[in-house]
Amino acid sequence: MARLIAKTPAEGLLPVEVAGVRLSEVDPGGLTSVAALGGADIGAALKAATGASLPGPGATTTGRGGARVVWFGVRHVLVMGPPVAALDGAAVTDQSDAWCTLRLDGAGARDVLARLTPLDLRPSSFAEGATARTLLGHMQASITRVEDDAYLILVFRSMAKTAVHEITEAMESRAARLRLT
Amino acid sequence: MRLPCPCCGDRDIREFTYRGAALARPGEGAGIDRWDDYLHLRDNPAGAVRDLWYHGGGCGAWLVVERDTVTHAVDGARLAAEGL
Ligand SMILES: [Zn+2]
């Protein structure tokens, strides 16, 4: 029997800090995709299972045991934190190993992200607790603003190295620009 | 150019993929001329068009977008799942 060595998606690549902005890898606990089947209303079942209410488009909610529910698409949310068992009316899949979860924080984190995503990151349109499915470079991503100057970024696990490379390059580009002013 | 996704709000064009004109699929038993029309014949109008866009770099929804090829105005978008 082969003995597999558990590695996080960005193992050995992080943390990185450039000019006051830090990129680190986060262990989200678990990642469970919850997609409503057909027109099913899964709000009550999700609340019972996680303690969190069902977030609408672009929103996040929180529940028991540090659970964070992130809107993830049409009739689709991602539960970060404690695993979720089967829910009536929903397709529930464990995706813990499928995503690379990064945290970008520090004053200037927004300027770094703005170099990579077409998303409007101004506080007036992307407040704390807001989330979006968008692009990070050429990668599909989920970006959540968890604090004033802190963002959670999810990309497919297979993109971990590319994401770290592109974000680090954006951090260095921002730092170079700061040195000119 | 930005498209107003009903889920995500105004989003940059690079998040979307263009599919083509939003046309009703021929019904069961439709004749070969009707299918030929559906598959191959387009009007290419200067003016108002309705086409399908995929928000693959966002929420993953298919949208019907109404826009104008002369003024470049985008008049609205809704979920294709709600019908063409
Ligand atoms: Zn969308």
How is this structure best described in words?
The complex is a heterodimer of chains A (about 180) and B (about 80). Chain A has about 180 residues and is an alpha+beta fold. Helices cover about 20% and strands about 35% of the residues of chain A. Chain A has helices spanning about 45-50, 110-115, 160-180; strands at about 15-20, 20-25, 30-35, 60, 70-75, 75-80, 90-95, 100-105, 130-135, 140-145, 150-155. In chain A, the strands form two sheets. A six-stranded antiparallel sheet of chain A has the order 1-2-8-11-10-9. The radius of gyration of chain A is 17 Å and the shape is globular. In chain B, a hairpin with a 7-residue loop joins strand 4 and strand 5. In chain B, the strands form two sheets. In chain B, strands 3-4-5-6 form a four-stranded antiparallel sheet, with no helix packed on it. Chain B has one helix at about 30-40, and strands at about 1-5, 10, 15-20, 50-55, 60-70, 75-80. With about 80 residues, chain B is mainly beta. Chain B has one domain (about 1-25, about 45-80): Folate-binding superfamily (Folate-binding fold). The interface of A and B includes residues 58 and 120 of A. The complex binds zinc ion (ZN).
